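Researcher: Sequence recovery benchmark, item below. Answer with residues only.
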């Protein structure tokens, strides 16, 4: 069933593109930007209720944010596509609430936040809005689409104050998502072109502009990149390319941890980097 539904969507869009190319482009783009966000389950709520909960706004969306701890140092966690703030539970528990104020928020159209659509600029704007509300961060720790969006935010909004950035399982190119979308749905090249035309009109950029290595090349903050060789959602070579152009970055390659990177070993690596500013020799 999971494989049939995308193909039905593709068949619908391919047929629509013959009758109304502009409508097919718009609907195809909106579907591309619509996550099937997982529900916030009861045990998720139990943990999230241990935080101070508050809201902020970005691009007309009311976004759910959380704070654990009251320490002077500040950390922000950014989740990925079709996830929410609970995914950081193990990480959050690793940091002292006396030393750190630990923040997370549900991205637009995710978790308990409002919104129907998300893409890199929408998430990037939310990151900017959050930092304008809360202030400078000692560290931002991000995963998957959250990493890509953090790179976009720091590239485009250089007034943002972030002292360290951690990228976990970052994708590399928007084109990767687009061609995955085409293959998954069976879109014809003609239908895809209508979608790309709408993409460019709405975002004022071609898809190849959205490149994690290009954004990373302008960063002036120390960073840690952790990526698993067997990541089947964000290929490992993107981490290598990001590292090559980000002059203040360290790259740690893992094996057997996959895309999620919530293993105790990875959490310890991230904690060491955030707290000490350098990695222990055992991680090199």
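Model:
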């Amino acid at each position: 069933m999971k494989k049939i539904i995308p193909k039905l969507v593709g068949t619908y869009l391919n047929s629509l593109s013959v009758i109304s190319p502009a409508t097919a482009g718009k609907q195809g783009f909106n579907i591309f930007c619509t996550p099937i966000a997982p529900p916030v389950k009861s045990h998720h709520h139990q943990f999230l209720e241990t935080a101070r909960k508050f809201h902020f706004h970005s691009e007309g969306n009311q976004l759910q944010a959380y704070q654990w701890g009251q320490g002077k140092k500040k950390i922000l966690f950014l989740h990925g596509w079709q996830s929410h703030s609970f995914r950081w539970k193990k990480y959050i528990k690793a940091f002292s609430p006396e030393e750190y104020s630990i923040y997370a928020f549900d991205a637009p159209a995710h978790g308990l936040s409002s919104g129907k659509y998300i893409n890199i600029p929408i998430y990037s704007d939310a990151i900017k809005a959050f930092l304008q509300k809360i202030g400078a961060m000692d560290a931002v720790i991000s995963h998957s689409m959250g990493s890509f969006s953090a790179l976009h935010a720091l590239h485009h909004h250089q007034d943002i104050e972030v002292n360290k950035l951690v990228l976990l399982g970052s994708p590399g190119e928007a084109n990767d998502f687009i061609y995955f979308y085409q293959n998954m749905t069976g879109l014809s090249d003609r239908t895809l072109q209508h979608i790309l035309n709408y993409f460019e009109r709405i975002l004022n950029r071609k898809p190849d502009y959205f490149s994690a290595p290009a954004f990373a090349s302008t960063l002036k903050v120390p960073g840690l990149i952790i990526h698993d060789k067997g990541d089947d959602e964000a290929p490992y070579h993107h981490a290598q390319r990001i590292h090559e152009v980000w002059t203040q970055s360290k790259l740690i390659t893992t094996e057997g941890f996959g895309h999620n990177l919530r293993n105790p070993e990875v959490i310890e690596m991230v904690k060491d980097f955030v707290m000490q500013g350098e990695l222990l020799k055992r991680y090199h």
